[in-house]
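4Fe-4S ferredoxin, iron-sulfur binding, pasting as requested.
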Amino acid sequence: MLGGTRGSTDAPAAESRRGDETKKNPEMNKPLRDTDLVPDDDGGPLYAAGKKIYPQRVSGSFRRIKWILMAVCLGIYYFLPFVRWNRGLGAPDQAVLIDLANNRFYFFFIELWPQEIYYFTGLLIVAAITLFLMNALGGRVWCGYLCPQTVWTDLFFAVERLVEGDRRERMRKAEEGWSLQRGSELVLKHSIWLMIAWWTGGAWVLYFADAPTLIKDLVTFQAPMVAYIWIGILTFTTYTLAGFMREQVCVYMCPWPRIQAALTDEWALNVTYKYDRGEQRTSLKKAAQARALGEQVGDCVDCNQCVAVCPTGIDIRNGPQLDCIQCGLCIDACDNVMTKIGRPTRLIGYDNDINIHRRMEGKPEIFKPLRARTVVYSALIAGIGAIMLYALLNRSLLDLNVLHDRNPVAVRLSDGSIRNGYTIRFLNKRGFDRVIAVDVSGPPNAVIHIVGADSIVPDRPMIILARDATTELRVLVDSRPSSEEDLAPSTPVAFHVTDIGLGEVASAKDVFVKP
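Structure tokens follow.
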């Protein structure tokens, strides 16, 4: 399974392959040294010591896909706060805005209020199920192409290669020690990293205020202190996680590799070394000699290019591993080598053990993207998405909430009528003022009064609600029953609000009680 430890595999031929590797590399039989493992308090190994990884530059289809997705993701993140969207006079014109001061979330034509937090819950559920579906189809596709840790680490790797050179140059410079050129390269690299990390933190805070205005305030040191604090926090975390911790975040900090290992099945496509083609491994020269003699040898020539380009430093030929983020760079590296030596490509590719065994048995490959779990995941995504879309398109832009007075809950007036007090909060979610009428039903002969608001019509309270705002008013309801028996100790009461111009209606229920 994908959640196995480093070097684990489900393939039956794995042990024989490791045996062959041990014969070719006697160092594998040597016991671990004390410096190879970090001991815990009892003297036993706690975790594998960190190692410096120098990923090599590679070109190919998967590398191009990663470049495109990186550009799209970073472009959206960095520049989306500057996109404008006209919502009318007086409303913010930033397309995506989390307006904490006014308790609003704006996303283009959508405006969500705190009472509509369930939309975010639905989005999180859809996102989680989409992640499950991606895992069922293509393994850790999210980790390899779209995860923020992967995207920013990939960008930091690109800067490192640009400044210090490719894998061999970086390894050589690390061994040679300090020099003036080495120091200047490190200063330049870390300066660029810090600029990227700083703009990452800066872009994040732009989603919480008008972006051009906030940038001006930041430059002139007039922005709120909390903005500077969050920029500092996100600058530090981006610089640390993408520049130094890198693959350690994926291996030790992220819970998703463990979770997805429990969610996957044998039909999921993962980056796989096709040992039915690759074994037995041998050098290019010996492979050519063996083929000239009619002997069967594998296509793998032990060039280790798949290891050299891996951002987590694993050998994919050892089978599925927890460290593998399924980025596909080893596929590009192996394809380049196979093309140069005249062998078929995709010795490493998206595959599974089922098809490896079928090829070994001379059977055709089978791929099953449509199976029970993928159908269920897709149906859940479509169902929840449809419910959310229906609720969004049919949501009321006029709403009210009612809160009954606690002390006293009811009073009897001198004329014998009974009065209950309520606090009503009216929500006008439209971008213009509106005139509403307030009605009450339930208690016999009920009459409603709005305290502190001038009603347009005396016998039916009508008030003006400000645009895109919440209006809180105190309301008194009087009831004069014909007899005490006509009014129960607790009677349901309903408040109705009607937009005079648009005809929109909203209602809320509470209770009317006797003293």
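Note for the archive: Residues 14-52+261-360 form one domain.
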